[in-house]
Amino acid sequence: MRQLNKEHASEILRTISDRKIVVLGDVMLDEFIWGDVTRISPEAPVPVVDIRRESIHLGGAANVLANLIALGAKAALAKPAAPPDILSALPFASSQPSTPGAAGSG
Q: Is 103 within 8 Å of 94 (Cβ atoms)?
């Protein structure tokens, strides 16, 4: 296997738009709660958070797929294993249901 150095990475990025890549893995959403810890709860040793905002980001295979597409690759999910609410949150997901064993739309 070739060593990944600056020249090899540049070559990969130059040719990535010519590649067809299938991503196989779990599709998930990462949910974050942002805020300040104001105190420790008297009922249990857990922080009490003053929630400022919440955010949801692509996680798992969905994050890998989004990054590949952002780099210019032609990429697709293979048989997404996720509930419909997660798939509908993906900006690149097909509105057509995935056929078992077939690559999804990308």
A: no
| CA distance linking residue 96 with residue 56, whole number of Å | 23
Q: What is the pTM of this model?
A: 0.62
Q: Which helix (DSSP H) or strand (DSSP E) does residue 39 occupy? A: strand 27-40
User: For residue 38, what are its two tokens?
Assistant: 């104001």
Q: C-alpha distances in angstroms, 71 versus 1, 52, 78?
A: 22, 32, 19
CA dihedral for 68, 17, 22, 10, sign (positive or negative): negative
Q: What is the pLDDT of residues 58-103, one digit of tens each?
A: 999 999 999 999 999 999 988 655 666 666 766 655 544 444 443 4
Amino acid at 54: E
d(CA 39, CA 50): 9
